[in-house]
From TrEMBL:
One of its GO terms (biological process) is L-methionine salvage from methylthioadenosine. This is Purine nucleoside phosphorylase. Belongs to the PNP/MTAP phosphorylase family. MTAP subfamily. Substrate binds at residues 208, 232-234. Homohexamer. Dimer of a homotrimer. It is an enzyme of class 2 (transferase). The record marks 190, 245 as: Important for substrate specificity. Purine nucleoside phosphorylase involved in purine salvage. GO terms for molecular function: S-methyl-5-thioadenosine phosphorylase activity. It catalyses: a purine D-ribonucleoside + phosphate = a purine nucleobase + alpha-D-ribose 1-phosphate. InterPro entries: MTAP, Nucleoside_phosphorylase_d, Nucleoside_phosphorylase_sf. NCBIfam families: MTAP, PRK07823.1, PRK09136.1.
Amino acid sequence: MVNAEAGAEAGNVAGVPAGGADIGVIGGSGLYSFLKDVTEVRVDTPYGQPSDSLFLGEVAGRRVAFLPRHGRGHHVPPHRINYRANLWALRSVGVRQVLAPCAVGGLRPEYGPGTLLVPDQLVERTKARTQTYYDGVTRADGVEPKVAHLGFADPYCPHGRKAALAAARGRDWDAVDGGTLVVVEGPRFSTRAESRFHAAMGWSVVGMTGHPEAVLARELALCYTTLTLVTDLDAGAEAGEGVSHEDVLKVFAANVDRLRSVLFDAVTGLPKTADRDCACAHALDGIDTGVELP
Ligand SMILES: [Zn+2]
């Protein structure tokens, strides 16, 4: 299944098969484990180690790099994920467009378990995560990033969202088009008061991993699209005991096959990398960050 054969290099990463990968998928092993000819590549970055190796394979003629967000065996909790290393590693093997599924809680009764929602907005309520590459802090390798302020009004790629929604509908999954994902620090779930507050603000779903992934992708001029799978109704939206981790895993497992089908169809619906014309692709135009991207 996994071969360690060394191929040509993409960027400065050894062992990457010729051509690298131009699409990245951040998600668990259930998404790539059955692909043929997967090449495992270890990537080191100026920001440390990513959550795991990258797994490069082909989906319908497109080269895709998979990265298990929590590592194999799910050992890295949301607040300890090295998001900077993860996005940097993907870009290092050639990735320019990222699809990022994640599990969330529904903040409205109509968004029950099994709902697929492709958000168009984001609210960040994390507390202790590094959110930028351009922080003016000299890296271990001596590179001195400048401070940069990027536009982030629309955090998700319009082309990626369109491809994700079309793919879901093609699989008879009536995905919700748009909504606001609020990202909390975790690892605990919300209190009822927090959950009611999130719902009262008009936000749609709550998760723990969608940020700073989104902004770091933007800082590397990557297209980024998240697909949220509702695994539970959040505490304020239900009368019972609240969310349990067991329920979350159960619902995710029940939906992983169709989520994989949707992701693979979405991959084929993404524009060619050379044709990208969205704001994500031009995020760094005219900005001197002091950092050379891989
Ligand atoms: Zn884009």
